Amino acid sequence: MATREQHSDGGAARRLQTNDLELGVTEALETHAMRNVVHGRPVSQKRLDFEHRRPRWLREMAAEATGVFFYVYPGIAATASFILNQANPAFGSIFQVGWAYAIGIAFAIITCASTSGGHFNPAVTISLAVWQGFPWKKVPYYIFAQVFGAFIAGLILMGQYHEQISLFKELTLAQGKTLIGPTAPAGILTPFPLPTQTYGYLFFIEWFVCSFIGLVIWTCLDPAQPFVAPAGVPFVIGLAYATMIWGFADVTISTNMARDLGTRFVAAIFYGRGAFPKYSAISILVNIPATLAATAFYEIVLRDSLTNIAKGHARHEHGEEGLTRHLTKTGTLPDGGDNTLRNRNGYINGSDESGVYTSKKV
Predict the structure, then answer these.
(1) Whole-number pLDDT of residue 12
(2) 0.90 exceeded by the pTM?
């Protein structure tokens, strides 16, 4: 914590110690002067009644669709700039595309996660249902909303870039090239493989890219991990996506069923059935089993459930009695220990056989 040291004798400098900070931009470390902020108008009863009547399922679907839109929209916009200006690298690069998706994902989580949980990916939704008890009845409409969000992002982009894409389409046809391919007009919306790439090769790349992202997401969601503060989670997850884009976008990746399928529907509307080649089965579906495998690895090998219980982020299925039995069985709590309590400092608290209060670090 910074503290202010006064210069004495009208500004005559005293000797500063090693840990002292001289006056300058360090002034920003001081507590800002308190300012009065005018309050907005009071919340009306009519407003509260309206919010109470809103269907929960509709709000969740809207949040999921909006969240997917938030990262697909800047991502495919950066891709459009990159493909349409291939002769002028100043207007786009893989680096720019990666950052567009990364910041878009961060904004999506910040804006919408508090309403729907911030899945934005069918693979994440299914993994949460498998491992964390997310209701299976919600899975279908979450996935529908996610695909719909990407679909809307693709439609809006095609409207905004209509003139440039139409000109690019004419030039592509005049050169005798196809409209569907990684650097063709349809490639703005959704990934397509290079002619030399085999399906086994594409499957291998997609599997490990999605596994990498899934493992990072699952780590960020674990309260027991000490390295990512909640406020940093949106940016860490976004950077996981960006890292994979920087490393593998040139060899074709999808990473998300909703992002791929939604924009692929738009590509099919504008460029025909060729938007769904055999490769689309890999780009649409592989991320689900890959993410499930990555999250299974985390749950089986890396998860520390006892720490989550100790910190108050989870509970034993049989309550405090079940937790006491487990601690006694494993030797964490002496035989006969009871009154086991948790606190948020990471300790299991209880009393031993003599009734002396004990506290053990988990």
Answers:
(1) 52
(2) no
